[in-house]
């Protein structure tokens, strides 16, 4: 399972979001190959007065109304010197002036001298930052590819894994027939989103296709309708299909976990044996997981009742 992070360039940001974010490149076309690697931005604050102790230079620098008001009070030479010092502190991807404010000449010259692209937008600062971060989160968050099948079962994103040929796709097909939704078959692209949750999707080439042994490639959307597939889903549970081996936890008191991209999700192991309806088992597992997320554990409740009965029975016996 290879993990990889993506970066984008300032040029790609402009290409993708110039209309949506009303972005305009004011200067620095030659330097738009600078990379953006973090889904966050920085409002420089004290850095514009020469204090760089906590300056986040690897982030896009946003000049909003507050920063602009501060800059406007500084003499031209001091502002230019401070800005150049700030832009040299790290490889700043770009500077963006928001709210349609006219860029101060000292900021222009500092960006030119340090070869940093300077952009403007007419959008309000808070709205712009919110929209920009959402875009950067989508484009730069850590990703990995996992061999498995992702299905939304009763609204819960279930990642089905197991050895090749064990029946993952056949199980998913039965779930689709029962009204659940396919996200990805064979290859699941997993992305760690802001807030530490996982989202799975299907590589574009494979969307709404499945490979079923004996049938070959089928188009799920054409066979079962457009509502039978979706582009992405949160991943909230993993189910491992395995060949029967040794003892399996019959009560299910201990909650198994698996870690993907540093995020823990609940996991369940189901042995595959002839005659077992795996689709029904996965349906029930998804519903049971919903109960657990609400603080209800059937296994623990049963165990408590059993222990109480044993204790009460022992007490009665000792009383005799």
Would you mind describing this structure in some detail?
Strand 11 (181-193) and strand 12 form a beta hairpin. It is built from nine helices and 18 strands. The mean pLDDT is 89. The strands form four sheets. Strands 1, 9, 10, 11, 12, 15, 16, 17 and 18 form a nine-stranded mixed beta sheet that branches. Strands 3-8-7-6-5 form a five-stranded mixed beta sheet. It has helices at residues 10-17, 65-73, 76-88, 105-114, 125-140, 168-177, 220-224, 278-293, 298-319; strands at 3-4, 8-9, 23-27, 35-36, 41-42, 60-63, 95-97, 118-121, 143-153, 156-162, 181-193, 197-201, 209-212, 216-219, 232-234, 237-242, 256-260, 263-271. By secondary structure, the protein is α/β, with parallel strands linked by helices. Helix content is 34%, strand content 28%. Helix 3 runs parallel beside helix 4 and helix 6 (168-177) packs across helix 8 (278-293). It folds into two domains: 3-139, HprK N-terminal domain-like (Udp-n-acetylmuramoylalanyl-d-glutamate--2,6- Diaminopimelate Ligase, Chain: A, domain 1); 142-299, Rossmann fold. The radius of gyration is 27 Å and the shape is elongated.
Sum this structure up briefly:
The chain has 320 residues and is α/β, with parallel strands linked by helices. It has 2 domains: 3-139, Udp-n-acetylmuramoylalanyl-d-glutamate--2,6- Diaminopimelate Ligase, Chain: A, domain 1; 142-299, Rossmann fold (3-Layer(aba) Sandwich).
């Amino acid at each position: 399972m290879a993990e990889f992070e993506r970066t984008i360039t300032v040029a790609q940001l402009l290409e993708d979001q110039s209309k949506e974010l009303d972005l305009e490149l004011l200067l620095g076309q030659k330097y738009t190959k600078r990379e953006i690697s973090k889904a966050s931005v920085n409002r420089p604050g004290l850095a514009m007065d020469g204090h760089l102790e906590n300056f986040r230079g690897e982030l896009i620098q946003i000049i909003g109304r507050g920063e602009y008001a501060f800059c406007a009070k500084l003499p031209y030479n001091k502002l230019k010197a401070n800005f150049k010092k700030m832009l040299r502190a790290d490889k700043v991807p770009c500077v963006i002036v928001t709210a349609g404010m006219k860029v101060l000449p000292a900021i222009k010259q500092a960006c030119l001298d340090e070869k940093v692209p300077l952009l403007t937008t007419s959008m309000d600062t808070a709205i712009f930052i919110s929209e920009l971060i959402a875009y950067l989160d989508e484009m730069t968050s850590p990703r990995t590819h996992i061999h498995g099948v992702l299905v939304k079962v009763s609204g819960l994103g279930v990642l089905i894994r197991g050895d090749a040929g064990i029946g993952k796709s056949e199980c998913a097909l039965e779930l689709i027939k029962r009204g659940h939704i396919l996200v990805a078959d064979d290859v699941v692209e997993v992305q760690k989103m802001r807030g530490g949750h996982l989202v799975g999707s299907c590589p574009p080439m494979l969307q709404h296709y499945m490979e079923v042994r004996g049938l070959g490639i089928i188009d799920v959307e054409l066979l079962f309708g457009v509502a039978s597939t979706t582009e992405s889903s949160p991943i909230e549970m993993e189910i491992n299909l395995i060949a029967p081996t040794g003892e399996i936890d019959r009560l299910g008191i201990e909650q198994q976990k698996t870690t993907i991209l540093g995020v823990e999700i609940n996991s369940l192991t189901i042995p595959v044996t002839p005659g077992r309806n795996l689709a029904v088992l996965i349906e029930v597992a998804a519903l049971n997981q919903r109960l657990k997320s609400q603080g209800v554990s059937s296994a623990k409740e049963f165990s408590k009742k059993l222990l109480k009965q044993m204790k009460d029975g022992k007490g009665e016996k000792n009383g005799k």
